[in-house]
Amino acid sequence: MSTVPPHRRAILAAVCLATFAINIDTTIINVALPSLTRELGAQTTDLQWIVDGYSLSFAALVLAAGSLGDRYGRRPALLIGLLGFAAASAVGAVCANPGQLIAVRFVMGTFAALIFPTTLSVITNTFPDRKQRAAAVGVWGAVTGLAVAVGPVVGGLLLTEFSWPSVFVALVPVALIAATAVFLVVPESRDPATPLLDRPGLLTASVAVGSLVYTIIEAPTRGWASTPSLVGFATAILSGIAFVLIERDSPHPMLDVRLFAERAFSAASGSVSVAFFSLFGFIFLVTQYFQFIRGYGTLSTGVRILPVALSLGVLSVIGANLAGRLGTRVIVCTGLVLLAASFAWIAQDSAAVSYGIIVVQMLMMGSALGCISTPATESILSVLPPAKAGVGSAVNDATRETGGTLGVAVIGSVYTSLYASKLAEGFSQHPRSALQTAKASVGAGYALARHAPLPIRDELLGHVQSAFMTGFHAGCYVAAGVCVLGLIGALALPGAAPSSRVVAPPAVE
């Protein structure tokens, strides 16, 4: 990007700062989960909602928000989103119970949905040259991945000196600085031809994603085959079908589903979803593994996740360059193979595995994610003209957040189900009330065991640890399996290096 004018570099820096602010929030909360268990009495399902509330509202609204930014102005969309995000973060710091915190997380995700697609839209309009745009997207992808991965490090650093509200307070100045930078350097751009908000599409999409995530998170408690779970899954399927039918027949759809007929678009979207499904689900569990099973402090936990951040950031830039030379399919498929292998490897670990081995596994995982996310994102954007950048970037963001949301929901719920089942076996000779307490979360299980009479303390601690590792390993196997499915889909990506051709969606008869 050496020939890029300074003012374009400044614009890129401003939108990357905005991107950093909202993406660090997707994972900074994870390292605080054990603190929320201890101080607010949050159960495992509460923890899933605290993480997923943000991602769910983000994913449900990002398509509509991208269109609003395109129509009414990308600069004001960024400013409103960043200021609202800062205000909601401040409110989050004063919540007194899990329910309040979950509600705030939904609000924060709503404002984040207004910010994220607009950043990519601004980049696409600022860098009309494909080569420069690919390099800019590579920087954006590196910042995005870095923010997601260093969130636990920053959270851990804060929690060594302060209590859990500090992870929300810290987001306020970052968002305000980003808003100031946007106000000073980002020019106004818009596409007045963008249609008005597609309300039926927004409603059916929100119901589809929301009911699916809700059902998955609550299924371990209610039962996977219970009537409420079956109704929830049916609602998700029917509303998903309704969304596709509405969007296909709408003259101004929120999401032109015909775009998915273009293989570069659909395969890339699926790859992004798979990558973040795996990453979010893994971070949700590994932060609890480090703190509860290994007994590390919050900062130590955050630092131990740093190998994912470093390798992801580096490979996001390298992966974009390699995709330009070797083709998107080769790089993304290589990333998915490495990602599946890393999770299959982690699933073999014992509770006391050497951290040196974990470092290698995390470097492998982060490198794989870098090979997937940026090349796939650039492939998605290549399908649409610059004037429709908000739509393309919103689809990329929606797939990313939907994947991450489902990752926490699915992997977290598989873990919860097996943790509870394994715990029931170990606690069969103990009072049922003790089992019910321990099943709420691994933190509750450890607290119960540590306060048990000395003769049975070690036995109960062993049962809790064994139950956690059973669920953790199962979650890793699920992630590996999803990566293999994603690999099959990624074979549809372009085999050669991408051309500068913009692909239009099929014409409507």
Kindly describe this structure.
With 509 residues, the protein is mainly α. The protein folds into two domains: 382 residues, MFS general substrate transporter like domains (Growth Hormone, Chain: A), CATH 1.20.1250.20; 56 residues. It contains 19 helices and no strands. The chain starts with 5 loop residues before the first helix and ends in a 19-residue tail after the last helix. The relative contact order is 0.14. The C terminus is likely disordered.
Percentage beta strand: under 5%
Summed up, the helix count is 19
The Cα radius of gyration reads: 22 Å
Class based on secondary structure composition and strand pairing:
mainly alpha
**What's the domain count?**
2
User: What is the overall silhouette?
Assistant: globular
The biggest sheet amounts to: none
Separation of the first and last Cα atoms: 42 Å
* Topology-level CATH name of the largest domain: Growth Hormone, Chain: A
The CATH class of the largest domain is: Mainly Alpha
Number of strands: 0
CATH homologous superfamily title of the largest domain: MFS general substrate transporter like domains
Gross CATH architecture of the largest domain: Up-down Bundle
The averaged pLDDT comes out at 83
List the helices and strands in order: HHHHHHHHHHHHHHHHHHH
Pick out the low-confidence regions: 498-509
Q: Roughly how much helix do the residues carry, as a percent range?
A: over 70%
